[in-house]
Amino acid sequence: MLEAAQGEIKVLESKWKGRMDLPMTEIGVGALFTAEVYAWFCVGEVLGRGGSITGY
């Protein structure tokens, strides 16, 4: 499992080094994933504080 994680880190590093050459589809998927993670974080915060947006 550790070897697989190290492989993924190498892939991420190579993509970061060539970030100016990434196609727009990969940039869009990354942006969508980031927005989804942020949205789930916000939902978790609301539910963790009692599930009410009015007292937020």
From TrEMBL:
**Major subcellular site:** mitochondrion
What is one Gene Ontology biological process annotated in the Swiss-Prot or TrEMBL record? Answer: proton motive force-driven ATP synthesis
Alphabetized GO MF terms: proton transmembrane transporter activity
Q: Which InterPro entries match?
A: ATP_synth_F0_gsu_mt (IPR006808)
Per its record, how is this protein called by name?
Predicted protein
Q: Which UniProt keywords apply?
A: ATP synthesis, CF(0), Hydrogen ion transport, Ion transport, Membrane, Mitochondrion, Transport
Q: Which organism is it from?
A: Micromonas pusilla (strain CCMP1545)
Gene Ontology CC entries for this record: mitochondrial membrane; proton-transporting ATP synthase complex
Q: Does the keyword Nucleotide-binding apply?
A: no
Q: Name one Pfam family in it.
A: ATP-synt_G
Belongs to which family?
A: Belongs to the ATPase g subunit family.
